[in-house]
Amino acid sequence: MAVSRARQRAATRQALLDEGRRRFAADGYHQVVLAEVASAAGVTKGAAYHHFASKAGLFRAVVAEVQRELGERVATAAGHHEELWEQLRAGCRAFLAAGSDPAVRRILLIDAPTVLGWDEWRALDEESSARHLTDILAALAGAGIIADEPVEPLARLLSGAMNESALWIARGGDPRAAERALDRLLAGLRTPAGAPPGPGG
Prior knowledge:
Elements (H helix, E strand, L loop, with lengths): L1 H26 L6 H8 L3 H8 L2 H25 L4 H14 L4 H15 L1 H10 L1 H14 L9 H19 L4 H13 L14
Helix pairs in contact: 1-2, 1-4, 1-6, 2-3, 3-4, 4-5, 4-6, 4-8, 5-8, 5-9, 5-10, 6-7, 6-9, 8-9
């Protein structure tokens, strides 16, 4: 019985998350009504309040879920490569490509910073994709491919640039142009010793 109830609670929570995610992505945070999310998910309004306490609580959980999935996309893309530099490029490109995902665009890039506040949004970002960026930059610095300097300010600069680029892509910008600009930006980070050999090198 206890196992059955736990499964039912988990199923109810996931149904609310799924419906909330769909509505937040399509309509934006301020147009969503928690009672309507509950009704569409096939559960009571009381169940929605039990699991998330408020619309903001549901939104926070949805943001965490989308952030986690984005971090997994970035890590998976990077993991397809052995060379550290290619891991960085692949992870950054995967992040930019996510700008075409309505959930990432509306929930993470537009609504989350204002609804949750900058500090909480940054904390969630750091737990997912931003953490992978910091880790790979530290590895590149350790290998002498980029300058061996503190990576946190660099990670924040790159993260901000990629957030803006992902939004630009989501609003109709050319993904290939964004990738070319990203490659030029990243190329400027390489030390002479870490640069790839030229023709005949």
